[in-house]
Amino acid sequence: MNSPDTALVALDWGTSSLRAYRMGPDGTVLETRADGCGIQHLPVPGEDGFEAAFEAICGDWLAATPVPVVASGMVGSAQGWREVPYLSCPAGTEGLAAAAVTLRTRGGHCVTIAPGLIADGAGQDPDVMRGEEIQIAGMLAAHPGLAADALMVMPGTHSKWAQMQAGQVVRFATYMTGEIFAVLRAHSILGRLMPAEAAPTPDDAAFRRGLERAREGGLTHALFSVRTLGLTGALPPGDLPDYLSGLLIGREVLDAAAALDADRPLLLVGEGALTRRYALALETLLGRRPDAPPGNPAPAGLFRFAQDAGLVSRTKETSHV
Amino acid sequence: MNSPDTALVALDWGTSSLRAYRMGPDGTVLETRADGCGIQHLPVPGEDGFEAAFEAICGDWLAATPVPVVASGMVGSAQGWREVPYLSCPAGTEGLAAAAVTLRTRGGHCVTIAPGLIADGAGQDPDVMRGEEIQIAGMLAAHPGLAADALMVMPGTHSKWAQMQAGQVVRFATYMTGEIFAVLRAHSILGRLMPAEAAPTPDDAAFRRGLERAREGGLTHALFSVRTLGLTGALPPGDLPDYLSGLLIGREVLDAAAALDADRPLLLVGEGALTRRYALALETLLGRRPDAPPGNPAPAGLFRFAQDAGLVSRTKETSHV
């Protein structure tokens, strides 16, 4: 079960999913687990639900070797296990540890939860993130030179674009792309002509057509073309979700590049099909390729956060003692 | 019941509602009825449902005096009572009659259904309307000089903007504003902080704040401010629907004014609270007031359509014979 060199258990605990990493003293991921127990999908609501989900995903790891636990994401929101107030931008990720909150579980384990970030400068609407600040910390750990002054793109239900300067998050913006796609597909007239099941292989040609259409602007008009291209047979039903995805991701990429300073290294965060689509959108619409390969920076970010909080040693040498 | 001078029964039959007008020989509306039997809310599906809804709303009028019946809207769509193929733009509304389809009901009444319009010029995505072409005919009847070269704004679930030239519809564009508002409110995270019931008196200040925010562009980012302004207490929960409405209507007005030729008379179609909001948006964002008072042009449009189809006489003199 638990190997003797476990030094940290790290939880990436969002709205719809929970991931747990068992990590060695040098930050190596020794084991990964994931389940659907996001904070809105707990086995039972409230404190009991958090305790049960926690015990289920990493109880055996901690029984074998009690080690510190860190967590990030919506687990620290008002609807989470413990609310951790936002840290204001500009902020460096090394400041996350000082603003963290630690709780003790019924089993006696300490869980240190990272704060989210809030961008609430004068003259702008507030924006918030929870979880992505740890991804940023992970990117800074993995690519210190590039990431310190990068524009980071973090696709998701609520995509985040973070503008870095000298290692600090100076601005960021949320785009509701993923959620808008989901509600339009499930609940609007645009979903009526689409097949019930997602296609096994997404269609890049239809996605690219959506990207090109996004250049014309006028999103709430462009969205209606999902219906008319379907109605007139110009696009087959199976292509409509890909076209809609291209419209929304394309508009996000163009709007974010205009609103933020894109004249800096570009980093794309994540893995899988969605990340590949963002790479296609960045290349098609901005002529840019990410300056480092995409990947999941959450484990590295959580480890760095644990180091900053003094929960694991900062160097391999001491951590192996 | 039926006065002796009934000359026409006209139906405005959309997706979610059915309105019937009993009209005199000069086009005067003698009586109006409305129910919820839109084509997606029939008492029973299919042909029987159309027959039943028809009989319920105007059967007694026709039993007293059999007169011609005209209809417009989604009743002529593929999901309607009889599909009437679209007429291509540029098109004059006097051409609607030649493209109409007439059906005979089981009770022996003839119902003449207007076609919709399709804009499918080279290099543009197709766009479609059903019902608004009759509103345009009504505006042309009511304001012949102004309407012939106007930009017409028709707010709704799917708002339409129609650019007229020499009495013809040369271009039009659909904005999914109303439907996007409804699905975001009911099914997205943006609805979570909103009260379940709409406020009895809409808040113009919050609506105006949404209009101003719309100027900044980046709609899918701006939408997230509905959440963050609520989360941070900057806007009370009851103001959030009005703010969201301002964002979406504001973006529609700005996008449509940029995409179409707004340097012409401006006409706003409709009545009630939504039309008032569009008037506020047009004045705030474009500095424009409609060149004629808003109103419901559907009865006048249906009457004109019936005249063009030869179902009622064209002049008062002959129609009073």
Chain pair sharing the greatest interface: A-B, 42 and 42 residues
The helix content of chain A is 25-40%
Largest sheet of chain A: 6 strands, mixed
Measured between the Cα atoms of the first and last residue of chain A, the distance is: 22 Å
Tell me the strand order in the biggest sheet of chain A: 3-2-1-4-8-7
Name given to the CATH homologous superfamily of the largest domain in chain A: 2-keto-3-deoxy-galactonokinase, substrate binding domain
What's the quaternary structure here? homodimer
Helices and strands of chain A: which structural class? alpha/beta
Low-pLDDT segments of chain A: 317-321
Beta-strand percentage range of chain A: 15-25%
Name of the CATH architecture of the largest domain in chain A: 2-Layer Sandwich
Q: Number of folding domains of chain A?
A: 2
The number of helical segments of chain A is 11
Q: What general form of chain A does the structure show?
A: globular
Tell me the series of helices and strands of chain A, N- to C-terminal. Answer: EEEHEEEEEEEHHEEEHHHHHEHHH
Average of the residue pLDDT scores of chain A:
94
Q: What is the top-level CATH class of the largest domain in chain A?
A: Alpha Beta
Radius of gyration over C-alpha positions of chain A, nearest whole angstrom:
21 Å
Find the CATH topology of the largest domain in chain A. Nucleotidyltransferase, domain 5
Care to count the β-strands of chain A?
14
Protein name (chains A, B): 2-dehydro-3-deoxygalactonokinase
GO molecular function (chains A, B): 2-dehydro-3-deoxygalactonokinase activity
Organism (chains A, B): Mangrovicoccus algicola
